[in-house]
UniProtKB/TrEMBL annotation, chain A:
Pfam families: FtsX (PF02687). Belongs to the ABC-4 integral membrane protein family. Its main location: membrane. This is FtsX-like permease family protein. The chain crosses the membrane at residues 20-42, 228-258, 279-301, 321-345, 400-423, 608-632, 653-676, 701-724. It comes from Paractinoplanes lichenicola.
TrEMBL record, chain B:
This is ABC transporter ATP-binding protein. Residues 6-224 form the ABC transporter domain. Gene3D superfamilies: P-loop containing nucleotide triphosphate hydrolases. GO terms for molecular function: ATP binding. PROSITE patterns: ABC_TRANSPORTER_1, ABC_TRANSPORTER_2. The keyword NADP does not apply. InterPro entries: AAA+_ATPase, ABC_transporter-like_ATP-bd, ABC_transporter-like_CS, ABC_transpr_LolD-like, MacB-like_ATP-bd, P-loop_NTPase. SMART domains: AAA. SUPFAM superfamilies: P-loop containing nucleoside triphosphate hydrolases. Signal peptide: none annotated. Keywords: ATP-binding, Nucleotide-binding, Transport. Coiled coil: none annotated. It holds the Pfam family ABC_tran.
């Protein structure tokens, strides 16, 4: 046993490059897997997990100001409240505040994500969803009370926009009512929740309940918002894991194959095939374990900021990497390493001893001579010609290098395309390209748009109003958006048909068209505030919320409440907004710069793309490096002959790099189209799984500049992988190389 | 008085902790001389040849070949030095199996740059004069040992070196092929080529060498 241990120890120490490469590849693979698996876990039922963790409210009930909460309600297992509710007018839309002494309790344990809970009358804690304000910021109400933001918090049940201490209620104005939060023994279906609501209402005087919200409605909204993006993040995660497994397998198999002669010698000395398998599996596992630990640490560190942003995306909390994810990722990679090493060593161990010893010593069949003759005629220097012909001499090894480069190029192309599509989808979903937005509860539609258009710096502007509507035979309400002016610049992407141009025409998204069975060219009758309106659908717009868009002239009764403005190049948003607010002073409208916040999804996608792209590049380059090191080791004697005949270090580097340059170009030629094809196949399929049709503009993301950059991917991978071996070849002492057999 | 082609002064080369492979060796070789270096295995013969070829550097002393201080050259400069001044012939030929005979011979000229046509013409002439022109398009694996060594000699001469260094040129050959190579080297010497031979082959030394140097335990002694 001690002899075997010695063999393992010397194998790890002697083949330093191989040991380091295995360690690095394992580290990169574990990092990618931790990141990928972490995202997978985070994207699996994020709302349900957070709801359970926060003891979310199955029913949020609004009580009249004079109502007393019932003491005992059948079916209720936990209750919180009553909490005072206030609508506090700020400069802009009013803010719904809930007064709570602390964030805990039996129901709706609000998670404080930054700062602390409000304890003094002049303190406020804001929700970190749509209403984002940093700690330390001040808010002034219309009646002059200044509140300091002391914390941000997240309620999965969405019970408030912001919270204050009960002591703040007196200074902030009139109590609108009270909030009671309930958890029921059974609340998994709408009927369960409705039964619970009926029980609460029955325990109170008639009219005491002024409103109630089921957790199923909150859940539906959260799931819909996240559902569009979850499949894309899952694809990213799977890409990282698959790449990791592929490259680990290739590197380990290559490393063991390179040790075949050593296996022959060990067998000649009496080592059994089982002992050889154990030795080579251990030789691979030792550096892989070290790399795995490093990769687990790196994966967790890299995942933290990315997952912090996914919390925003999912509207959930606690999206951290579970300990078992790290364990499974690292363990999985080590299992792949062990299995590949076992299979390769078993194969080598079964070779006849005499054949195994002969590997690398006896001159093998010389292949690709035609390529050598062809390359010699090229108008390039002799070292470059020798390098160009080299891949034809070892077709299997060349195929492995080509696979590593092409896989890397495919993955980078796919990841880049996926990210670009997702960013465009996000812009199309939000329909929010405006530089400045004008808002006001009592805006003057007729007067505002001409004033905005007349303002210096305005490139385009439109006004919009929204109203709920229903379609005959459909119980679910949907949103109608009326538009004044040209809105086509604001992120609206047409899937088919055209944008509305005349009164009575409308465009709608797939959810509306699917739910109502409407096709382009059909006319539908909707009802807004019990008034029938006929709309002819002339196009399908990319939309995820079931909205319909038409001209204000079609439904003039819907008031315009928001104006979106695009500015000319070079116009300062803040100065423009200030100036426009002054110009609109008489109309009670406020202009605010838009788009200052970093979109959480964009941050996730950019972080993931960059991380995965770098990991995939590194892993693919390591694959190239590994194969080149094996190749150079095999022909180190030839290298010595070249140098003895006068090949300079620079010429040696040129020869080694030329030996993979062609493969780099070929890898790009194979990998980039394959990556584009994958993006074309996977992105629409993922969108279709969410019931969406993607317009061509969201898929056609590979412009000439991006394609040019991606085409360099293969050569860059090859160059990165070749630099170290080329340097090693250039530095190898001629006399030492000549002595090597 | 003609300057020596090789001028070694007080050269010592040590490897690891043991006794030096070469110890305080001084040696001069004049143009046109053929010097045979004889000695048992491990006596320092190959180390001496490596130092002259610029494949290795001495720990002490100076090595000057064709007016160039070889012991101070870096890797790139020593490669250029070999191209310009040295032709190397190895015991096991060291031909590249994936290149034809002609391409093997051409390689040093191509590494040095210059006119392709001139190099090809010169290589073809060398193959012809060495009697192996018919094998120009063959691969070395198909040739006999003697023929391979002729190719190696042609490759060593393609850049018209001032000095031909041959390390056991008959060591891997059968008797007939060895005789063949002896004639070849003798002819080269007769034509004025300066040659340093490292060999165990006393017949080769007697046939070609104008003088012999004996090596023992890293020390060089003039024998004849």
């Amino acid at each position: 046993m001690s002899g075997l241990r010695q063999v393992i120890r010397s194998g790890v120490r002697r083949r330093r490059v191989q040991t380091v490469v295995i360690g690095l590849v394992a580290a990169a693979a574990v990092t990618a897997s931790v990141l990928g698996a972490g995202l997978l876990v985070a994207s699996r039922a994020p709302f349900d997990n957070s709801f359970a963790a926060q003891h979310g409210a199955h029913l949020t009930v609004q009580l009249a100001p004079d109502a007393k909460p019932p003491a005992d309600v059948p079916g209720v297992v936990a209750a919180s409240g009553p909490y005072a509710v206030l609508d506090v007018p700020l400069q802009g839309p009013p803010l719904t505040l809930v007064a709570r002494a602390d964030p805990g309790g039996d129901v709706d344990r609000v998670e404080v994500t930054d700062g602390r809970w409000a304890t003094a009358p002049n303190e406020i804690v804001v929700g970190d969803g749509s209403f984002r304000l940093p700690v330390g910021e001040h808010l002034t109400t219309e009646n002059g009370v200044t509140l300091t933001v002391v914390g941000t918090a997240r309620s999965v049940s969405q019970t408030a926009t912001a919270w204050v201490a009960p002591s703040a209620v007196e200074s902030l104005g009139t109590i609108q009512g009270y909030q009671m939060l309930y958890r029921f023994g059974a609340a998994s279906t709408a009927a369960d929740v409705e039964a619970g609501r009926a029980a609460v209402e029955a325990a109170l005087p008639k009219g005491a309940v002024t409103g109630a919200r089921s957790w199923l409605d909150v859940r539906q909204q959260a799931v819909e918002e996240a559902a569009v993006f979850v499949p894309f993040l899952v694809a990213f995660a799977l890409l990282g894991i698959v790449m990791a497994v592929l490259v680990v397998g290739t590197v380990i198999a290559g490393a063991v194959a390179a040790g075949t002669r050593r296996i022959g010698i060990l067998k000649a000395l009496g080592c059994t095939p089982a002992g050889i398998v154990r030795a080579f599996v251990a030789q691979a596992l030792i550096p892989a374990s070290v790399g795995g630990v490093a990769g687990a640490v790196a994966g967790n560190l890299i995942a933290l900021p990315v997952l912090a942003e996914t919390e925003q995306l999912y509207g959930s909390s606690n999206a951290t990497i579970a300990w078992w994810v790290t364990l499974v990722a690292a363990g999985g990679v080590l299992v792949v390493v062990a299995a590949t090493a076992w299979a390769a060593a078993l194969r080598a161990g079964r070779l006849r001893t005499v054949d195994a010893i002969a590997v690398g010593r006896a001159a093998g069949p010389v292949r690709g001579r035609w390529a050598g003759r062809w390359a010699a005629r090229l108008p390039v220097s002799r070292p470059v010609a020798l390098g160009l012909a080299r891949p034809f001499a070892r077709p299997v090894r060349t195929t492995a290098i080509l696979l590593a480069v092409a896989t890397g190029a495919t993955a980078v192309t796919f990841a880049t395309g996926l990210a670009a599509s997702l960013v465009r989808i996000q812009a199309a979903v939000e329909q929010d390209n405006a530089d400045v937005i004008v808002m006001g509860m009592r805006g003057d539609a007729a007067g505002a748009l001409p004033a905005i258009t007349a303002q210096a710096g305005t490139r385009a502007a439109y006004g919009m109003g929204q109203a709920p509507a229903i379609v005959s035979g459909n119980t679910d309400p949907f949103s109608v958006t009326t538009i004044t002016g040209d809105a086509t610049w604001d992120g609206f992407e047409m899937v088919s048909g055209r944008w509305f141009t005349a009164t009575g025409e409308a465009v709608a998204g797939a959810p509306f068209l699917n739910a109502t069975g409407t096709r382009i060219g059909d006319t539908v009758q909707i009802k807004i505030q019990d008034q029938p309106v006929r709309l002819r659908i002339v196009g399908e717009v990319f939309e995820t919320n079931g909205g319909v868009f038409t001209s204000t002239s079609t439904i003039p009764d819907v008031p315009v409440g928001e104006w979106h403005i695009a500015l000319t190049d070079g116009t300062d948003k803040n100065a423009y907004a200030q100036s426009l607010t002054t110009a609109l002073a008489g109309q009670n409208l406020t202009a605010q710069p838009n788009g200052a916040e970093i979109d959480p999804l964009l941050a996730v996608v950019q972080g993931l793309t960059l991380t995965l792209t770098l990991l995939l590049l590194a892993v693919a380059a390591l694959g190239v490096l590994n194969m080149l090191v094996l190749d150079l080791r095999d022909r180190v004697h030839d290298l010595g002959v070249h140098k003895a005949l006068g090949m300079t270090p620079r010429q040696t580097i040129a020869m080694v790099i030329a030996s993979v340059a062609g493969l780099g170009v070929l890898g790009s030629l194979l990998g980039v189209p394959l990556g584009i094809a994958m993006q074309r196949l996977v992105v629409p399929a993922m969108a279709a799984s969410g019931g969406l049709h993607l317009p061509e503009s969201l898929l056609d993301v590979y412009g000439p500049v991006l394609l040019g950059g991606l085409a360099l991917g293969g050569p860059v991978i090859a160059l990165l992988g070749a630099l170290l071996p080329a340097g090693w070849a250039a530095r190898t002492r001629t006399a030492v190389a000549l002595r090597t057999e | 008085m003609t300057d020596p082609v090789i001028d070694l002064r007080g050269v010592t080369r040590r490897y690891d902790e043991g006794p030096p492979a070469l110890h305080d060796v001084s040696l001069t070789v004049k143009p046109g001389e053929c010097v045979a270096v004889l000695g048992p295995s491990g006596s320092g013969k190959s180390t001496l040849l490596n130092l002259i070829a610029g494949l290795d550097r001495p720990d002490e002393g100076t090595v000057t070949v064709a007016g160039t201080r070889v012991d101070t050259l870096g890797e790139a400069a020593s490669a250029r030095y070999r191209r310009a001044h040295i032709g190397l012939v190895f015991q096991f030929f060291n031909l590249l199996d994936d290149l034809t005979v002609l391409d093997n011979v051409l390689l040093p000229a191509q590494l040095a740059g210059g006119s392709r046509k001139a190099a090809r013409d010169h290589a073809a002439g060398l193959l012809s004069s060495l009697g192996i022109a018919r094998h120009a398009d063959a691969y070395p694996g198909r040739l006999s040992g003697g023929e391979r060594q002729r190719v190696a000699v042609a490759r060593a001469l393609v850049n018209r070196p001032a000095l031909l260094l041959a390390d056991e040129p008959t060591g891997a050959l059968d008797t007939a092929s060895g005789e063949d190579v002896r004639h070849l080297l003798n002819g080269l010497h007769d034509s004025g080529q300066t040659i340093v031979l490292v060999t165990h082959d006393l017949r080769l030394a007697e046939a070609c060498a104008t003088r012999t140097i004996g090596m023992r335990d890293g020390h060089a002694e003039e024998e004849r």
